[in-house]
Design a protein that fits this description.
Length: 199
Amino acid sequence: MNVDFNKNPDGLVPAIIQDNTTNKVLMLGYMNAEALKKTIDSQLVTFFSRTKQRLWTKGEESGNVLNLVDIKLDCDSDSLLIKVDPKGPTCHKGTDTCWNENNVTTYGFISTLEDTIESRIKEADSEKSYVASLFAKGINKIAQKVGEEAIEVVIEAKDDNDTLFLDESADLLFHYLMLLQAKGFKMNDVVKVLNRRNK
């Protein structure tokens, strides 16, 4: 790995730390050539501390180390993306990330949709919310709706209308997300099962 440590006068390059499982960005640190070498040799992420003016292995006092998984160099050879398996919170303030975010896997719009479903269930306004009205009918009705949508997906898959197939697929996924929450689960629980099967 040919890192351009000479691009900055202090000989440091930014090192973006990302959780290998959740893909959350945990923190930003700086490395010089010696810190990078120590990181690779020890398999524990080590920075050059600009305040302490010395090498600093993350977690050397707290025990909240960052186990090295992978290192990628950017296109200009002057910044690093370091994938890690964190042990404990990353931020010195005790939070998962230095941006005060929870280090959990999210699925973009799917996670947003799950949050919307959850809030509609809590509001329980069955006159204004389709989700709340379906939940008011109980889990059997939600499960039945998933079955109906699955059949419609199969029917549309056998035809040539891609728009209808995608519409029915969206309906199936939406109702499946509701069924998961009716059973006390979310998409991440299903992904965990898939990950276990992948090993």
